[in-house]
Amino acid sequence: DIQMTQSPSSLSASVGDRVTITCRASQGIGNNLAWYQQKPGTVPKLLIYGASTLQSGVPSRFSGSGSGTDFTLTISGLQPEDVATYYCQKYNSAPRTFGQGTRVEIK
Amino acid sequence: EVQLVESGGGLVQPGGSLRLSCAASGFTFTFFAMSWVRQAPGRGLEWVSTVSTSDGNTYYADSVKGRFTISKDNSKNTLYLQMNSLRAEDTAVYYCAKELVATIWGDAFDAWGQGTMVTVSS
């Protein structure tokens, strides 16, 4: 099975900072990667699919890149409402594994 | 507006059974694969199972294979998860999730229910 590894597991940054989260697949998955945001006490929300396509309604400060085994989620200008845990997921074949999550906090 | 409403969670003893339901509305349920994802208290997301569309194929995480059964009743717009031989480690919030695109299966999850809590404890 393909493993999905996120780094870091948590980070603290200031409002306005550029934040980068990495997701690495143990084998190539093409661009079949999604990013989700889960704010405390809420349901996960799809941010990005196809590694780089922004889901409708998601602010443009979120962006995704990568293909194959290495992927990145970038928040260009962290906002207080971005405090959340972010998960990557490979979705095109079973098991549809999630990364372990990256918790983002405001410094 | 897409809505997914789970029900059926609760407290069950180890070895017991539960059936979760997910009532769907706001989209053509027949055309979309559906999945269950769970989240243990304080933990991350874990994909549990997917049922495809036209061919009805099902897929399971190794942790639930042989114990859980996913099914989809298109006439009732409802997704199910039959959970047997429950273990303490199955304790989690269970979410149903809809695929982004109307395909057999294999896309991101663009809509999630609010979740239903399953607690396995004596």
Q: Can you describe this structure?
A:
The complex is a heterodimer of chains A (107) and B (122). By secondary structure, chain A is mostly beta strands. Helices cover 0% and strands 50% of the residues of chain A. Chain A contains no helices and 10 strands. In chain A, the strands form 2 sheets. Chain A has a 6-stranded mixed beta sheet, with no helix packed on it. Chain A starts with a strand and ends with a strand. Chain B is built from no helices and 11 strands. In chain B, strand 7 and strand 8 form a beta hairpin. Chain B is globular, with a radius of gyration of 13 Å. The mean pLDDT of chain B is 96.
Fold topology:
The complex is a heterodimer of chains A (107) and B (122).
Chain A (H helix, E strand, L loop, with lengths): L3 E4 L2 E4 L4 E8 L7 E6 L6 E5 L3 E2 L7 E6 L2 E7 L7 E7 L11 E5 L1
Parallel strand pairs in A: 2-10
Antiparallel strand pairs in A: 1-3, 3-8, 4-5, 4-9, 5-6, 7-8, 9-10
Chain B lengths: L2 E5 L2 E3 L5 E8 L8 E6 L5 E7 L6 E3 L7 E6 L4 E6 L8 E8 L9 E4 L3 E5 L2
Parallel strand pairs in B: 2-11
Antiparallel strand pairs in B: 1-3, 3-8, 4-5, 4-9, 5-6, 7-8, 9-10, 9-11
Briefly characterize the structure.
The complex is a heterodimer of chains A (107) and B (122). With 107 residues, chain A is an all-beta fold. Helices cover 0% and strands 50% of the residues of chain A.
Low-confidence stretches of chain A: none
Largest interface: A-B, 26 and 22 residues
Order of helices and strands of chain B: EEEEEEEEEEE
- The chain-level mean pLDDT of chain A equals 97
- SS summary, helix count of chain B: 0
Note the main sheet of chain A: 6 strands, mixed
Residue-averaged pLDDT of chain B? 96
Reading the helices and strands of chain A in chain order gives EEEEEEEEEE
What is the CA-atom radius of gyration of chain A, in angstroms?
Answer: 13 Å
Which features does this protein show?
heterodimer; A: mainly beta; four-stranded antiparallel beta sheet; 10 strands; 50% strand; B: mainly beta
